[in-house]
Structures are given as C-alpha cells and as structure tokens.
C-alpha cells in the first residue's frame, strides 16, 4: 500500500488534516506523500487561488459568505461538464501520470477540489484506484456530491443525511470524526504549559486566534477585553501569518503585562494546553483540535459559509458559545473566564 494525500493551499485547515493523516500513515509504516492538488493544474493557478483566498478572508469576508451561499443555491455549477468542473479537473491528466508513475494505489482527499480531480482520474484512467474524501467541516460542502470516490469520512453520524445524494450512498459513508495531529491528543499539564509561555500558573488564560490568516474583528474584540481584563487573567492573541495585524496589536498593547501578542505559533497544542478558554472563528480543524482537548470555546463568526455550520454544531453540544457583536463576544469571554464551574461544564460537553 502506498498513499497519496491531496490537499489544497486554501487556509491551513486542509493542510493540517493532511498532516494528521500523514502522521498516522508513518505511525503504521505506510508509505505516503502529501501534495497540493491545485499544482497539477499549474503552480500559477495554485498561487492565484491561495492568494485570493487569503485576501478575501482577511479583507472581504462578506464576499466569501455570498459566494458560498451562491454555490449552495446553484449546485449545478459543479456538475460534470460545467465550466467550473472542467476548470478544476483540467489537472487530472497530469495527476494521473503522477499517481501511476509513483506507484500510489490509494488517494485521500482533504479538499473538494482534489476530490473532483481524483474522480475524473478514476473515471477516465485508473478505475481500480482506491479513493476517499475526508470532510474537514461539519457540513457537506458544495461540490462534494459531484465527486465519485469509494469512501467519504465525515465528522459525525448526525450529518449523514447532509451527504447523501449524487454518487454518495449510505454504504460509502463512515462517521469517524475529523483527524487531528497527535500533539492535540497527548496533553500537557496546564501549569507546565502556562510556564512554557510565561503565563503565571495561578492566572486564568484566554487564547484568541482567528485562523492562520488572522481575519475577523480581532482588534475591536481585543481592545474591549484588555480594557476590562483583571490583573490575574492573561490574554494571548495569535496573529498567524498576518504581519500587519501583529504590528498593530503589538503597538496597541505595548506595556500591558497580561496581554501577549504572538505571530505564528508552531506548537498550538501546547498553547491550547495553557488555555482556560479559546476565542476563535469556527474553522473545522481548529475547533476539532480544541474539542479533542476539551477546551471551551467562544466563537467569532468572521466569515460564515461552511464555518456557520461548524459554529452551530458545537453550540448544540454545549461546548461553545458566541455573541452577535464584538462587545457581546468580549463580555461573554470575560464572564466565562471568571466562572470555573461554567468552564468545566463546557469542557465536559466536549468530552
């Protein structure tokens, strides 16, 4: 068995899922490689889609919201033969050569674009290739039902009905959760994790992050929290790859001993271990990582789209809460941070 994992560079969620799968393959001594599916169209297309995805997320989230809704309301745009389908599958020939030439017998897709491309490869060239799709959000995203793979691994059995249709039949579905890397399942003592980040062990710690791209009303929420944050509570804000946000926040909160600004954090698992509460947008992978650590969450509805379904799923579990405005989100976060029984109840709901 030799596995190819196909992701797409549209945010770190799909790549993090791919990394978790690769980690498990290595643990089981299964040869595997990970590739960006979009590069088989062309490296230029991959960079173009990735760059515009980041720009829209950071600067025009409303546009993403509208686009996602339009895709849901007009699913035929992904049907075989449509212009969008032809565009997304034009790399199938090159991908087929790569799969055959490298001896892969199994392909795992962590993005819908990859699933469409692999479906075309199976249909036209490699009918015996074993294929599967890993859903990285708590919904069936547009175009998933236009793919035709052997298995579809979904986050929860309660979502099965959303995925049925097109070529997806009940026997192809497997409800097994979303893969996360082992670091999010190991756990470090909260006191030790706090020491690693310079947080006093007797302080409550709120970690705030809005995706690897640092999108959403972070500054507005952070100002309100910092203004009312007690001396025995700490706030850490992770800006990810958003260098401009890192600079603005660093200048704004310079001199506040209990507000810590970080750029890109490699060991997010350790930072989450240090947290008592996690303030974040509901990206499918990040909330699954937090849930695996039983870390209570407050959601920022920064971009909606598929993340709206993630938000609703975890609100129903009782492991997360949200607010309609930055003021409400800040007030809710501060209130929870001082309420240990409430935090424990939310953590138990994620267990």
Percent of residues in beta strands: 5-15%
Helical segment count:
16
Strand order of the largest sheet: 2-1-3-4-5-6
Beginning-to-end CA distance, first to last residue: 34 Å
Structural class: alpha/beta
Describe this protein's structure.
This protein has 351 residues and is of the alpha/beta class. It is 46% helix and 15% strand. Helix 7 (160-163) links the parallel strand 5 (151-154) and strand 6. Helix 10 crosses helix 15 (326-337). The radius of gyration is 21 Å and the shape is globular.
Write the layout of secondary structure elements.
Layout lengths: L2 E5 L4 H16 L4 E5 L6 H17 L1 H13 L9 H6 L3 H11 L3 E4 L2 H13 L5 E5 L16 E4 L5 H4 L9 E3 L7 H4 L3 H7 L7 E6 L8 H11 L4 E6 L4 H10 L6 E4 L5 H7 L2 E4 L3 H9 L4 E3 L6 H12 L2 E3 L3 H12 L2 H10 L2
Parallel strand pairs: 1-2, 1-3, 3-4, 4-5, 5-6, 7-8, 7-10, 8-9, 10-11, 11-12
Helix pairs in contact: 2-3, 5-6, 9-12, 10-15
């Amino acid at each position: 068995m030799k596995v190819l994992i196909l992701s797409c560079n549209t945010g770190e969620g799909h790549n993090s899922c791919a990394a978790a799968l690769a980690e498990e393959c290595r643990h089981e001594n299964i040869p595997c490689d990970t590739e960006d599916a979009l590069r088989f169209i062309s490296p230029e297309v991959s960079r173009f889609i990735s760059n515009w995805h980041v720009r829209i997320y950071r600067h025009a989230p409303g546009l993403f919201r509208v686009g996602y809704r339009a895709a849901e309301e007009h699913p035929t745009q992904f049907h075989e033969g449509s212009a969008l389908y032809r565009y997304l599958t034009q790399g199938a020939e090159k991908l087929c050569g790569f799969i055959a030439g490298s001896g892969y017998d199994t392909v795992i897709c962590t993005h819908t674009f990859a699933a469409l491309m692999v479906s075309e490869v199976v249909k036209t060239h490699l009918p015996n290739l074993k294929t599967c799709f890993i859903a990285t959000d708590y919904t069936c995203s547009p175009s998933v039902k236009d793919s035709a793979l052997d298995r579809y691994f979904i986050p929860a059995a309660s979502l099965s009905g959303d995925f049925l249709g097109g070529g997806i039949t009940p026997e192809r579905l497997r409800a097994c959760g979303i893969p996360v890397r082992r670091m999010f399942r190991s756990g470090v003592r909260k006191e030790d994790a706090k020491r690693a980040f310079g947080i006093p062990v007797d302080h409550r710690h709120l970690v705030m992050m809005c995706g690897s791209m640092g999108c959403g009303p972070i500054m507005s929420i952070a100002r309100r929290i910092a203004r009312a944050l007690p001396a025995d509570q700490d706030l850490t804000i992770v800006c990810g790859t958003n260098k401009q946000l890192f600079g603005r926040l660093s200048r704004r909160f310079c001199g506040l001993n209990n507000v810590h600004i970080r750029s890109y954090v490699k060991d997010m698992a350790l930072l989450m271990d240090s947290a008592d509460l996690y303030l974040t947008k509901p990206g499918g992978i990040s909330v699954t990582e937090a849930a695996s650590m039983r870390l209570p969450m407050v959601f920022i509805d920064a971009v909606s789209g598929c993340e709206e379904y993630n938000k609703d799923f975890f609100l129903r579990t009782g492991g997360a809460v949200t607010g309609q405005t930055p003021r409400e989100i800040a007030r809710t976060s501060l209130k929870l941070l001082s309420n240990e029984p409430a935090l424990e109840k939310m953590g138990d709901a994620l267990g």
